[in-house]
Amino acid sequence: MILQGKGLTKQFTGLLALADVDMCLRENEVLGIMGPNGAGKTTLFNLLSGYHRPTRGNITLLQTDITFFKPYQIVKMGLARTFQLVRPFQELSVLQNVMVGSVFGPGRKVSMAEGEKVALEILEFVELSHRARALGKTLNIQERKRLEIARALASNPRVLLLDEVLAGLTPTESQEAVVLIRKIREEKNISIIMVEHVMKALMELSDRLVVLNYGRKIAEGTPDEVIQEKEVIKAYLGEKTSA
Amino acid sequence: MHMQAYVKPVAIALIMLSLLLVPQFATTYTTSVILNILMWIGLVTSWLILAGFTGYISLGHGAFLGIGAYFVASYWQILPFPILILLSGLICVFVAAVVGYPVLRVKGPYFVILTLGLSEFVKYSLVYYEVNIRGTVGRILLRTPSLENLYYWVLVICLLSIATAYLIKRSRFGLALMSIKDDEDAAEALGVNAALAKWKAFAISAFFPGMIGAVMAMRWTYIDPYTVFNPMMSFQVTITAFLGGIAYVHGPIIGATMLTLLSQSLWARYPNFYMIALGVILIFIVMFLPQGLAGLLSKINVPGFIKDVFKNVSSPERRKEL
Ligand SMILES: Nc1ncnc2c1ncn2[C@@H]1O[C@H](COP(=O)(O)OP(=O)(O)OP(=O)(O)O)[C@@H](O)[C@H]1O
Ligand SMILES: [Mg+2]
Description:
The complex is a heterodimer of chains A (243) and B (322).
Chain A: E1 3-12, E2 15-25, E3 30-34, H1 41-48, E4 56-61, E5 64-65, H2 71-77, E6 79-81, H3 94-104, H4 112-125, H5 141-154, E7 159-163, H6 171-187, E8 191-195, H7 199-205, E9 208-213, E10 216-221, H8 223-228, H9 230-236
Parallel strand pairs in A: 3-8, 3-9, 6-7, 7-8
Antiparallel strand pairs in A: 1-2, 1-4, 4-5, 9-10
Helix pairs in contact in A: 3-4, 3-5, 4-5
Chain B: H1 2-25, H2 28-54, H3 61-75, H4 81-103, H5 108-134, E1 139-140, H6 147-170, H7 172-182, H8 184-189, H9 194-220, E2 222-223, H10 225-228, H11 231-244, H12 250-266, H13 271-288, H14 292-299, H15 315-321
Antiparallel strand pairs in B: 1-2
Helix pairs in contact in B: 1-6, 2-6, 2-7, 2-9, 2-11, 2-12, 3-4, 3-5, 3-9, 4-9, 6-7, 6-9, 7-9, 11-12, 11-13, 11-14, 12-13, 12-14
The structure holds adenosine-5'-triphosphate and magnesium ion.
């Protein structure tokens, strides 16, 4: 077990965003998180990555209790995330964007020279090298999403949280992103949790799925098991149908 | 191409040389005007170490100037001048470190107001101390160093602040600060300890106004809390920075030169008109020149001899952007 959350609960004023959710992530696994809008998926990521403190519950990453760690400490522990709303550093070049991750993300101190070398490798890996010198704000959606992944990878994480990295992409771009995620999994020793509305991609990529609805975990299992569950069908009926 | 590579160092060397020779050859009046320009360049450049890199706009920069001035006034003729200057800077670093930690947690407009409030607080505490405990209003400084001596001190401090900005820009620290400016949350997600980086930047930026205050007190020879803690100093630092363009290292140089010359020609005869001019300039920059004069220059492609420091990408790519 590489990452574990127990009894995770997040109460916002007047709203229970996450209620008593247990989850775990195994070595080299892709865990998919699905659920309708507002189900608490991003909230779960915010708890795991230290952006919100859980109202109750605790989180263990690689045998360390990280429940009260700060975001920058959690990256250094080996858990990197992307944001649902991709936020490249607008005024920094693509290379500098990735260097922020490669210089500050790892648990040890990395020099600018070494950070640049790693960043260039990662840009090659996500096929964004040709844009290395462009400013963050000049990227299109697809490039932004790739940059978001590249920055997270640059910290050399053991666990990667991907929050809707396929959203907003055309079907072709989306398929290319699926290929990239697969490549991350095969070539790097990284376990992945991904939140996605694109069902097809989730089914293809995930080893296991967790389904959230109104902050509760309503199902968990292999993709085939989960889509059979009555609760899941009910939660998704009348919901927007996803690609 | 190859010629260009020599133009910059040669131009910089020439400017340095003429700055060094100013007190020898220029009139007292010219020397004091250039000293004023250098003072503003130092103040604005050091202010930009926080504001330019991280986007945190402080209206408390002038307070450090006041603290430096008061420190030097208290120990003048007790300790040697160079030690006093250094200590003034270090005390401001210390003060910034103490107030900075809580204050830098506040973001956006609240940060701006808070820094202004804090510097007013320092001012009135000092007024209280001076009037009720010492029984004085101001202090007169005697046997102050010569204009020439002060000129060289300000020149050194000014160059030091520019060098510091350059070095930070190229360092890991600079990368951390620039990422904070664009998106503090994303920076933290990538491992940047934003609170620590901002804190360091604030403390470093306070070092220079502290030293400048120490030197300028000697130039003013009379100080009182109302003048050395005048919030106008902080406002003018900000306006100068924006006029020059906060993204460029030559921004402060252009801004400080323009405003000092303007104030020199207007202040003595039409003080109110100078204030109106400042206000108009501010409105004008906000509405038409968000990149400042340095931004305007880079747009019309005048070869700048000093490379932009606070801008994050070197010029060729940048020019395409603008
Ligand atoms: N910082 C916050 N303060 C208050 N309420 C919040 C906050 N963040 C999220 N919420 C609320 O918590 C609930 C869960 O939100 P969350 O963003 O986790 O949903 P999600 O499953 O990621 O949805 P989506 O598919 O739209 O991204 C929503 O009702 C949301 O409005
Ligand atoms: Mg979400």
